[in-house]
Amino acid sequence: MKYPIQIFSLGPKIIELHWPKIIAEDVLLEIIALKNNIENKYSPIISSIYHSYQVLSIQLKEIEYASEVTTWLKEFIKRPMSRENLPARWIWTVPVCYAPEIVSSQNQYLQEKNMDLETLIEYHTSKSFLLYFYGFLPGFMYLGGLPETLHIPRKTIPDRKISKGSVAIGGSQTGIYPVDSPGGWYVVGKTPVAIFENGQVKLPFNPGDKVQFASISPQRYTELQEGSVHNWEKTAYCG
User: Fold this and answer.
1) Selecting from 1.10.3720.10, 3.90.550.10, 3.40.50.720, 2.40.100.10, what CATH number does the domain 90-236 have?
2) How far is CA 238 from the centre of its chain?
3) Per-residue pLDDT reduced to its tens digit, 63-78
4) Which entry of 32, 61, 85, 92 is 20 to 30 Å from 49 by CA?
């Protein structure tokens, strides 16, 4: 691996691997590659495995496996990362309506930033955002790469309810609220596509993929909202 990795034991059945405290795509790729190798080798004895920006956490089913897995990890992280250990990666297009008649609270963000709507749309749709992981809420994506022009401090007093499908910006991040939830981010758009429904996350995106927002009209928003199944558009990502 390229980066120094520390291995910690958090109780008899939990092993954590820590990367340096930076948010970077190549750190994410190392985490994904290692996670895939662990699952391929030890899937029957793993209770759960998940990651954040710099941490990979493994919970084992039984105590007696901890020593074997830890020994294997210490040797494996000495090797260079192979791209063969990474899954195919995609850029997914997510339709978003930025029209004021659909996004009534959008003006809060525009006033705070002293920005017009056209500039917001231009910057928010000009690039794709890297999906690091899911968390906070079922289907809530932690996306990286927001242009600095769009950064804004989170609200000091969170809203009591942000509706599902709201595309929002908070700090240096952007994301989509999959369900109705309190939140301190500024809503800038809405997607008509269901993200979490009937107890299941409806997104085909995986960490390491990218998300590209595409501006749509209110009419198209209504059409997609009334559709039963969304056909996701994607292109191969070779980053």
Assistant:
1) 2.40.100.10
2) 18
3) 999 999 999 999 999 9
4) 92
| pLDDT band at residue 229 under the 50/70/90 scheme | confident
β-partners of residue 49 are 58
How do strand 128-134 and strand 141-144 relate by DSSP bridges?
antiparallel
Can 6-78 and 90-236 be said to share one CATH topology? no
50 vs 31: CA distance, rounded Å: 10
Given CATH 1.10.10.10, say whether it is the number of domain 6-78: no
Delimit the domains of the chain by residue range: 6-78, 90-236
Global pTM reads 0.90
Residue 202 pLDDT? 85
